[in-house]
Amino acid sequence: MANINLRPWREELRAEKQKQFVVMILGAAIIAAGLVFLWKTDMDSRIAYQQSRNAYIETATKKLDEQIREIESLKRKRDELLARMQVIQDLQGTRPVIVRVFDELVRTLPDGLFYTDLKKTEDKLSIVGMAESNSRISTLMRQFEESDWFADPSLSNVAEADNRRAGYSQFNLSVQQKTPEPEAEDK
């Protein structure tokens, strides 16, 4: 007798292949979902790591900004202290000069003449005084010319004094103060 297969083998084969296809699709979907999950987890961890680095950099930047402000403040204080030290050194350096200037003012003062007002502006000395005669004023100007500490005397005004100083002339004189050579200071 002949073997005749009456089973629906084609439908079974098709159903089997369809099951395999569905299993393969589900397997591929599960693998793809797993890969997507791993990729997302990796990206999240990288983002978290970068955010922590950014936070560290921001914290370090804030600390550096504070240090920069502190350094600038210290530099300002240092500059102020240096300026104060310079002023003190200038004052210490010019202290003997003032004494010498007053000493020279007394040395150049002829008899019959006295000062009523002295004003110093930078290197210019303005003098207001009283003199018995105009010749005493010219003697004062000659002595200023000969002095190592003064130069360029300039007489701006000579007037008769008020009643309290009868016989005296009031004068306004300006003279440049100069710094003498070192050997002139030793005299």
Automatic annotation (TrEMBL):
UniProt superkingdom: Bacteria
Record keyword Coiled coil present: yes
UniProt feature coiled coil, ranges: 57-91
Keywords on record: Coiled coil, Membrane, Transmembrane, Transmembrane helix
Transmembrane segments: 21-39
Protein name in UniProt: PilN domain-containing protein
Organism, scientific name: Marinobacter albus
